[in-house]
Amino acid sequence: MPKMTFGSREREHVRRYTRYYGTKGDAGPSISHYALTHYKEWEKMIEEWQTPILQNSSLPSWYKSALFNELYFVADGGTVWVELPEDSDISGGLRSKDGGLPGQPHIVKEYGRFAYLEGQEYRMYNTYDVHFYASFALIMLWPKLALSLQYDIAGSVVQHDPTERLNLMSGHCSPVKTRNVVPHDIGDPDDEPWLRVNAYMIHDTADWKDLNLKFVLHVYRDYHLTQDTQYLKDMWPICQAVMKTEMKFDKDGDGLIENSGYADQTYDGWSVTGPSAYCGGLWLASVCVMCKMARLLNSDSVYEYYQDVLKRGSEAFDKLLWNGNYYNYDSSGRSLSNSVMSDQCAGHWFLRASGLGDDDDDEFQHKVCSALQTVFRLNVMCFGDGQMGAVNGMRPEGMPDRSSVQSDEVWVGVVYGLAATMIHEGMLKEGLHTAEGCYRTVWEHLGMAFQTPEAYSEKGIYRSLAYMRPLSIWAMQLALDNLMSWLKRTAINKSMCLIF
Question: Measuring CA to CA, which residue among 350, 282, 345 is closest to residue 136?
């Protein structure tokens, strides 16, 4: 089956393996022969990849199972991997005003286009707010595919589709795609992905506060892990464009964006008003990496601009959201504004994964650790007898936030990201315990092996089987790798001190 079409049947797509086996559809014997003569080599390579982790006695068995077995979704998530047509331009012939993005990037031409569904029930390709979590599996194991996906997202940023469409939640109409905004997804497999993006119809995602920020954080993390300077240069104008768009959400000019009062981010059923822990933290982390990228690319004026924003925004974030123990859910002053959100340190998590965040002042580091300890004490240990992971929202008195269906859920992929953040901050025991609760609940108690859901509740009710976000468990492996490297460096430094 070398060729495929999506539901609209407008375009014929050629699978990437056809560059080796042709497009006639007669390569079954050749493919089978190749597999039968190479499978021993493949098995050896798989063993070499897995053995260091499987034989590491300091890692628990459940973690080894989750780490490798959650990768089922990379292949089983409605996945497509196709060649880029010779006449294609990933941005539709458009460019940001600063240029920078080639029509056919080398990585996309060489490694093809890759897309996977948000979930087998949530039928959208490369859902970006969720890919933010899942992307760790790609960037660590198939980095060229991760970068190729990023180029496709970047190409869609500059596009505009003025077609008016009804948003199901508000009942209002808005354009399908707004220029200089990151899309929610690159399309529905029953339509024509890449050609028509934003299959999501619940909200107008041009008003979402997290998508642009997640793109910027992706870019720097990917650069940090691959050291691909050309990629960084290509993405820099797109980063500037989406951050300029994002700046309009700082309505009072204090350097910190505000949420709109409805569910305008990945928690699309949990409303948030004013500056918030989740989006505010992502904003500050994005501003931080803009400063870092500006330095790397010798853009002094951009650096100075975002340094000023970072200083003012950090002060506002602390003043409006820090309560002495953790960051409040939002700053609206509502009765539930001081709920404890398990994902409140998501921005700091990406900074740590990008090799940043360890040179902050001691006061800020203390606040991050205090917030994570509060999450562990309340969202983890006061929920499901401390054996079900971390609930998204928890009240300070130790009861789940039941203001929405999503605040009362555990999101498996969020929990793995939370666990990675804890490990980055030296909370290894707490991080492993937090993640273990999800694994035991899904793979053992609910019996959902190889169909990990997006969410479940304390009563065992689940939502959206076979979901993208739990691939974030590879963020835990990155955190563990970094922890081991730090321990080795520390041991060397101690040895040097003893010698001298």
Answer: 350
| Residue 176 located in a structural domain | no
Q: Which residues pair with 259 in a beta bridge?
A: 274
Measure the CA–CA gap between 355 and 112, rounded to whole angstroms: 29
**pLDDT score of 486:** 81
Q: What is the pLDDT of residues 441-494, one digit of tens each?
A: 999 999 999 999 999 999 999 999 999 999 999 999 999 999 988 888 776 665
Run of H or E including 419? helix 412-424
Q: Which residue has the tokens 């691959």?
A: 226
pLDDT of residue 494: 56
List, in sequence order, the alpha helices (H) in 70-127.
Answer: 72-76, 106-111
The Cα 371–Cα 482 span in angstroms is 21
Q: What is the largest CA-CA distance in the chain?
A: 72
238 - beta bridge partners? none
Per-residue DSSP letter, 209: S
What pLDDT is stored for residue 188 in this prediction? 98
DSSP 8-state secondary structure symbol assigned to residue 441 = I
What do you get for the CA distance between the two ends of the chain, in Å?
A: 66
Residue 388 inside a domain? The answer is no
| CA–CA gap between residue 184 and residue 153 (Å, rounded) | 9
- Would you say 389 and 432 are in contact if contact means Cβ atoms under 8 Å apart? no
Q: Tell me, what's the pLDDT at 499?
A: 44
Q: How far apart are CA 487 and CA 290, in angstroms?
A: 29
How confident is the model at residue 487, as a pLDDT? 82
Q: What local confidence, expressed as pLDDT, does residue 165 receive?
A: 96
Q: Write down the pLDDT at residue 11.
A: 95
Domain that holds residue 1: 1-51
Residues of the chain falling short of pLDDT 50: 496-500
Question: For the range 358-366, what are the long-range contacts, defined as Cβ-Cβ under 8 Å and sequence gap of 24 or more?
Answer: none
* 241, 248 contact by CB (below 8 A): no
Sign (positive/negative) of CA torsion 144, 149, 153, 156? Answer: positive
Q: For every residue of 115-170, which 3-state class applies, written as one string? A: ECECECCCCCECCHHHHHHHHHHHHHHCHHHHHHHHHHHHHHHCCCEEEEEECCCC
Letter string b/e over residues 236-274, b meaning 16 or more CB atoms within 10 A of that residue's CB: bbbbbbbbebbeebbeeebbbbbbbebbbbbbbebbbbb
- Which secondary structure element, helix H or strand E, spans residue 129, and what is its range? helix 128-141
Do the domain assignments include residue 79? no
Beta bridge partners of 119: 467
Residue 23 lies in a domain: yes
- Torsion over CA of 269, 272, 278 and 279, rounded to 10 degrees? 110
pLDDT at position 435: 98
Whether residue 272 contacts residue 329, with contact meaning beta carbons closer than 8 Å, is answered with yes
Work out the burial of residue 32: count CB atoms within 10 Å of its CB; fewer than 13 is exposed, 13-18 middle, 19 or more buried: exposed
Contact indicator for 76, 137 with CB cutoff of 8 Å: no
> DSSP E strands: which ranges in 379-461?
393-394, 410-411, 455-456
- What total number of domains does the chain contain? 1
